[in-house]
Specification:
alpha/beta; five-stranded parallel beta sheet; Rossmann fold; about 40% helix; 5 strands
């Protein structure tokens, strides 16, 4: 059985590094992107090798994290998605949401929830 691979999308390198470390402790490898356009290129290239998408909602560029989540979901409907953000209001997107700042336990609980829901 191959290791799970996540795609972490956030314009802050520190957040990507933090998430990568938290996920690696659970045996989940990570690929990183700093914006939605880069994330879409990675998804086109790696496709079904990506097991989980974690994306910030607010990012520079033409596409925010919610748009990215919908776009990824249209191409890969079984791809679990977690939205993260420091904004106060939870988006009504239908995706799992984790408020920044978050603990390792909070993000891992969300990962467990979305992966088991798609299994």
């Amino acid at each position: 059985m191959r290791e799970r691979v996540s795609l972490i999308v956030d314009d802050e390198p520190e957040i990507r590094a933090y998430l990568r470390l938290v996920l690696e402790c659970k045996g989940i490898q990570s690929v990183e992107a700093e914006n939605a356009a880069e994330a879409l290129r990675i998804l086109q290239k790696l496709g079904s090798q990506i097991d989980l998408l974690i994306t910030d909602i607010q990012m520079p560029g033409d596409m925010d994290g919610v748009d990215l989540a919908y776009s990824a979901n249209s191409s890969f409907p079984t791809l679990p998605v977690i939205l993260i953000s420091g904004i106060v209001d939870k988006p009504s997107s239908g995706f799992t949401f984790v408020q920044k700042p978050f603990t390792p336990e909070a993000i891992l609980e969300a990962v467990k929830k979305v992966i088991s829901a798609k299994a």
